[in-house]
Design brief:
Beta-Lactamase; Heat Shock Protein 90; five-stranded antiparallel β-sheet; 15 helices; 52% helix; 19% strand; elongated; phosphoprotein
């Protein structure tokens, strides 16, 4: 993938990068929008559930109030006194008066709750008292069943669900005496509740005016909306897990949001049904608008990205064309029209510098071409006039044979040593040699010096055999030995001892070569100059700085030269390299 990007043009890379940025922004926008709409849906669900809970609470509270009302009536001492007197041996007139008072009292209770259609009381003596418009029922079997059910509850209230959707909800309670004999049944109090009126009074749709409510018991539907479109909605067949929840329900090709709650008081299930489009139509419109705006913004962003990338790369393409012309030698066509380059940024600067470079090249070609040809020709002739190294080797070889013919062994050996030194100095093909080869050069050099100084110089080599095949930069040891000769032998009147030996470093891995002499040594100031390598080369011209830098270049900064010296006692130069020179690359 990285290789493909490297082969792409800058324009294509810019466009691709901007498209990736736009894609990331769009992905983030999609995630945020999805989360926002999901949160909005949850808020709508919660609002619908809260509205239904308020309606359910109102219905449940009123049912509880009716149950409390029946309890208060059953325990009302005045009502019980009137019932006892009506059933006693009193005159017809007095019974009529008591009956009227009893009905008035019951009517007061009935008017305290709007949803009560009628209150009926049947005593044990056969008296039947009715207050209200709608009679509970005239079927003797149903009345007997209501009385029997209330009697089984022993004074507690009982709710009897309607047998069909038009019948009222029945609340019954057996009235028992609070006087002597205690708890003797006096009759049965029966309430008929207009359940539809009760539900409609407390059901207040807030999410949508078309919200409908179902009330369902274990035996069937207690309340169903009046709208004809819901008459065929079989709500009792819908699985409603748990005590409350919500789900989406399909009915006659439309989606409905359904929220439900199970009442722990009555055991009923309240089901709120909201047309999905009514609640979420605004969300759909908002979502479509947002996506349309987002699509327009993406198109605009892509267009701007394209124009930006083109404006950025057009001057670069122009400069590249001019460079190709310059490669072909057409310098006049390579000049960029500065007036066409309006940028004042780095690209404009490149155009200006390119023009300046082209003009300089033209000037060099026009003014210096012939002059350079003459100079090169002169240099070539001078090189031809230089002494050929092979001529020098042949001359030294002739001198060597002449010395041998005359039995001048010392002269012959000196010439051979000098030839070896010259051959090593002029061999530019190799930068690294073995320690063994370096020591051979040193021995040849020291032979020449011994001829010169005679017994004033004593040189010894004590190098470990395992160090002989290690790699070392060429002329890394010989110049140090030469420095010892120059600074030690020439400065003392007697014999000067110079030693080259090796040892293993303290880390067990590196090699240390030491060139020591017992010459005059040096003071601290001069020693400090040497340690900072602030020293001019002597002799062959290869100074300590050069050797130190070549060692570090070959093996790393942890290797190089170290110098120790004591005034009047001598000097020791330490050269540290890795064993075998294996770190050299």
């Amino acid at each position: 993938m990285l290789g493909i990007l490297k082969r792409m043009k800058i324009f294509h890379r810019l466009v691709l990068f901007m498209l990736l940025v736009i894609s990331v922004v769009c992905a983030g926008f999609l995630v945020v929008t999805t989360i926002s709409f999901r949160t909005y849906d949850e808020m709508l669900y919660e609002q619908a559930s809260r509205a239904m809970n308020l309606s359910v609470s109102g219905i449940e509270n009123e049912i509880g109030n009716i149950e409390k009302l029946s309890m208060n009536m059953a325990l009302d001492s005045r009502i019980q006194e009137q019932l006892i007197s009506i059933q006693g041996g009193i005159s017809s007139y007095e019974r009529s008066v008591r009956t009227t008072d009893f009905k008035n009292k019951i009517m007061q209770y009935m008017f305290s709750e709007d949803s009560i259609s009628s209150i009926r009381f049947l005593n044990t003596s056969g008296y039947d008292f009715l207050v209200g418009q709608n009679k509970v029922t005239n079927q003797e079997e149903q009345i007997a069943e209501i009385i029997r059910t209330a009697h089984e509850k022993e004074g507690s209230g009982v709710w009897i669900e309607p047998e069909n959707i038009d019948a009222g909800l029945i609340s019954a309670r057996e009235v028992r005496s609070i006087f002597e004999p205690i708890l003797e049944p006096l009759g049965t109090l029966i309430f008929r509740i207009d359940f539809q009126k009760l539900v409609e009074r407390h059901f207040r749709p807030t999410s949508s005016p078309t919200t409908e409510l179902f009330v369902m018991s274990n035996s069937g539907v207690l309340y169903r909306p009046k709208a004809e479109r819901f008459q065929g909605f079989e709500v009792e067949k819908i699985a409603l897990p748990g005590k409350y929840g919500s789900l989406l329900q399909q009915f006659e090709g439309k989606s409905y949001f359904l929220a439900y709650k199970h009442s722990s008081t009555t055991g009923w299930k309240y089901i709120s049904l909201i047309p999905y489009d009514d609640v979420f139509q605004e969300k759909k419109s908002l979502r479509n608008t947002i996506w349309l705006i987002a699509a327009i913004l993406v198109v605009v962003a892509c267009s701007i990205s394209y124009l930006f990338a083109r404006s950025f790369t057009r001057p670069i393409d122009q400069l590249a064309r001019q460079m190709r012309s310059a490669e072909k030698g057409d310098f006049s066509a390579s000049l960029v029209d500065i007036r066409a380059v309006s940028q004042m940024d780095e690209i404009g600067y490149l155009h200006k510098r390119f023009n300046s470079m082209i003009r300089n090249i033209q000037q060099l070609i026009d003014e210096n071409y012939k002059k350079q040809i003459v100079i090169k020709d002169t240099e070539y002739r001078a090189l031809q006039a230089q002494i050929n190294p092979h001529f020098l080797y042949n001359t030294l070889n002739s001198i060597n044979w002449m010395a041998r013919m005359r039995n001048e062994e010392v002269i012959s050996t000196m010439v051979e040593s000098l030839s070896q030194l010259l051959r090593g100095a002029m061999d530019n093909k190799r930068t690294m040699v073995t320690v063994r080869e370096e020591i051979e050069l040193i021995k040849g050099y020291m032979y020449i010096q011994k001829v010169r100084y005679g017994k004033r110089i004593d040189f010894e080599v004590e190098v470990q055999e395992e160090a002989m095949d290690s790699q070392i930069p060429k002329f890394a040891l010989q110049p140090i030995v030469e420095n010892a000769v120059y600074h030690a032998v020439d400065q003392v009147a007697g014999v000067c001892r110079i030693t080259l030996h090796s040892e293993t470093a303290s880390n067990g891995e590196d090699l240390v070569f030491m060139v020591t002499d017992d010459g005059p040594g040096m003071d601290k100031a001069y020693l400090e100059r040497l340690r900072t390598l602030d020293y001019e080369a002597k002799g062959t011209g290869i100074g300590l700085r050069n050797i130190h830098e070549r060692l570090q270049l070959a093996f790393g900064e942890s290797y190089g030269i170290g110098i120790e010296s004591v005034l009047g006692e001598g000097t020791c130069v330490r050269i540290t390299i890795p064993r075998g020179g294996s770190r050299y690359v």
